Fold this protein.
Amino acid sequence: MSMAKRKFFGEIAALLDKMVMVVTMDGKKYSGTLAGIDPETLSLCLSEAKDDKGTYLHRVFLNGSTIAQIFTVEKPFDLKSLSERLDKVFPTMVRLYEDKGFIWVMDKVKVTEKGVVEGAGPAAERVQKVYDLFVKEAGSK
């Protein structure tokens, strides 16, 4: 698989569990949480969705060939800025894996847009504190 194709699928995968709006080829609009996607056909599933008339739809499955556009509704989490902030606290011990959606700190603490997801002890607690402050500051802007 080419680098561009991998990056494209990485971008789509980053939208999982996020609010999106989908416009079909015939102009219908659906908004909801992206619950699943087939990378081969770009078919997708939206949960807790609404159509353009405001009708609630528990699940919507859209065939990739009918999709014209996909828009993100949420502002993306700035993982790069968080990694830069963590690098100030843990110099040279922070590795950003933006395409995979996580940061490794000291090769033992994994942090995502949800906070520390792997690791324990004082280092993980410190990473979580930096994360909490980062999120608080981002929310107040």
Helices lie at 3-13, 79-89, 122-139. The chain has a mean pLDDT of 91. Strands lie at 19-24, 29-37, 44-51, 56-62, 67-72, 94-97, 102-105, 109-112, 115-118. DSSP finds three helices and nine strands in the chain.
